[in-house]
Amino acid sequence: MTKISQLTLSVQLPDDETFASFQSESNQMVVQQVTHFLDRICDANKQVHSLYLFGLSGVGKSHLLHASCVYADKLGATSLCLSFSELTQLSVDVLDGLENIDLVCLDDIQLIAGNKKWQQGVFDLYNRMVEQNKCLIITGDQSVGQLNISLPDLVSRLGWGLTEQLKPLTDKEKSFALQYRAQQRGLYISDDVASFLINRLSRDMTSLLAALEQLDQASIREQRRITIPFIKDILF
Length: 236
What we know:
This protein is an alpha/beta fold. It is built from 9 helices and 5 strands; from the N terminus they run αβαβαβαβαβαααα. It is elongated, with a radius of gyration of 19 Å. The chain starts with 27 loop residues before the first helix and ends with a helix.
């Protein structure tokens, strides 16, 4: 069995990425489907063992994977979230033994589209997870049929379970999400400040939240509120 403590990967979950902090009205049905899937994680008679989430970059796929692990922990299940951006730098043998974990989340499967060895490894892991009655959530940037995965058996497996598509957030949802995450940090940002960030920075949530992190640290360091002039001083 793979000893998770020996994996040289970023396995520490962000403490603020939960289902509660996933602020997107247009994707609430997806969140409900994910939580319903996870509610059966300890069911010895569950019929569905996998969930495939897809959507464009920045729509919150990684957030939902992290949230799924937090949720699984509350249910008393073991979990692990890994990204193919890191996994593919290692031997495919790193997947050995992961079927002993109740929930395995794998992010950005499109990154193995041209790697037959990794495709075979994920296919084998999928089969072992089903045999052990465990759960697997995988994300990608396209639907299963558009992933350019060359191993037909893996394409088939990805289509076996549930499939959900995440819609891009509207500017209103991005603004609300930024304000919510700021509040979780003990910060206050006004509607005007949130709109300024969305209109002046890269519009994906990953970049916006990275900017919020930078502003949070600068606000603490300089003992200043986050205002538009402050943002201009720090980010531009």
